[in-house]
Structure formats: structure tokens, C-alpha cells
């Protein structure tokens, strides 16, 4: 006889801190929904000394669907340092060449940590948090 089955909660939680790569873009989908996307460049840990290569980065697409988050992402400028939380999503759509998909981060919260130059984190007074409702 087996005991009670243990319930394990599944999680899909993302937290990123990185640099905005370019101006966010606004798209209106065929459904009429609006989405704002921004590319976030997140540095990986540096290579061990003496390897002679630049530290690699990951470039991730962040998307905002709700009005508060769309407004927040629209205010971002290239090289802003931001923190986002959200979930990894796979989005599907059709083109003339057939079905397409991509993974992106669906933003739940967004905080601008600093304006401008990469690697210069701002002070608490510069942070502008917004959480989705």
C-alpha cells in the first residue's frame, strides 16, 4: 500500500537584470491586441582569467501585454539597466511562410535601475517599479 501522493508545485518564474539593447517596439496583432517588446542583454559570469575572450551575453525578448507594463516598457531607452520578473512563454503565430514560434519573457514587474551606460547601477531614488495588475 502506498502513502498519500506528494503534490509538487510547478513553477515558471524568471528574474533578469540587464541592459536594454534597443528602443522597445510596439506591435498590433491581427487579433487587435497590442504587445510591447524589448530586447534585454544579460551578461554571463566572466570567463576565468587568461582565456582572452569577452564574457558572453544572452539576449532575451521581453514582452508586455497589459497596459501598465506596456507603458513601462515604452519608457525604456537603449542602455537603461532594468530588472524584470515574469514567466517564460512560447508564442505561436502564422506567416505567409507557415507557422512560427519563439520563446520570450512575459513581464509581470519591471524596474528601471539606472539610465544610460551599461554596468552603472542606479540608486534607489532612480528606480521606478511597476507591477502588473
UniProtKB/TrEMBL annotation:
Keyword Manganese attributed: no
Alphabetical keyword list: DNA-binding
Coiled coil: none
Pfam families: SSB
UniProt keyword DNA-binding, yes or no: yes
Superkingdom of the source species: Bacteria
SUPFAM superfamilies: Nucleic acid-binding proteins (SSF50249)
InterPro entries hit by this protein: NA-bd_OB-fold, Primosome_PriB/ssb
Annotated signal peptide: none
PROSITE patterns referenced in this protein's UniProt entry, alphabetically: SSB (PS50935)
Entry GO MF terms: single-stranded DNA binding
CDD domains cross-referenced by the UniProt entry: SSB_OBF
Protein name: Single-stranded DNA-binding protein
Organism from which the protein derives: Phytoactinopolyspora alkaliphila
Taxonomic lineage from the root: Bacteria, Bacillati, Actinomycetota, Actinomycetes, Jiangellales
